[in-house]
Amino acid sequence: xxxxxxxxxxxxxxxxxxxxRGIAVALxxxxxxxxxxxxxxxxxxxxxxxxxxxxGLRPVLIEQDFTALDAPRLIADAALGDLGAVDILxxxxxxxxxxxxESTDTDWEEAMTLNFVRQRQLTAALTNQMIERRWGRxxxxxxxxxxxxLNGAFAAKAAMHAWSKGLSREVGKFNITVNSIPPGxxxxxxxxxxxxxxxxxxxxxxxxxxxxxxxPADVAALVCFLASPLxxxxxxxxxxxxxxxxxxxx
Length: 250
What we know:
The two termini are 28 Å apart. The protein is globular. The chain has eight helices and six strands, in the order E-H-E-H-E-H-E-H-E-H-E-H-H-H. Helix 4 links the parallel strand 4 (88-91) and strand 5 (136-141). A six-stranded parallel beta sheet has the order 3-2-1-4-5-6, with helices on both faces. It is of the alpha/beta class.
């Protein structure tokens, strides 16, 4: 299937490992010109090499701490300066923040900043240039809606879903779509750090209907489709990629 995105431009945040890396590689394989950003340049260089070795164009590398106050402006300026325009924005940066009843306001503010505020600000910095060209795709990698306790990321991702839906209604008339993908258990550094092989095997057998953890490519495939003209009529949606892990019916 020809997705029709070759020659488009994209910015992917949190692109150095895991899901973000898989998305960057998949878009690069489709002929998209990329800007990729993360904190660790050495890992960004590895992603760039992987894309180039597969025949893609070398991405623009933006080494940036996403939580910094001026990060959205710096990232947007760097991407626009090198690519000329950003057609596709993939908001992937973020991280889990498990909390307790004793968690402080600072803890909550940090979680909301990392998982919602910076994404909203970066999107705002790039929306007008999408409107001017009457085309754009905003794809947010979010999180599950079944919290098993207090977690700053869960609250922030719920905000992402509500904000994304509202934004989709404002920009749809400009041929811009806004969608969210909450991944399930997708293999990454974070998964390997937080869950033992024994637990992963148990959960795969007992809680995931398809019987295994997913791979970054599983999420990347949906991202590429949502970024394409073929998905022009899908917006404001929340589409899980979780092997059936979620228990709610919609």
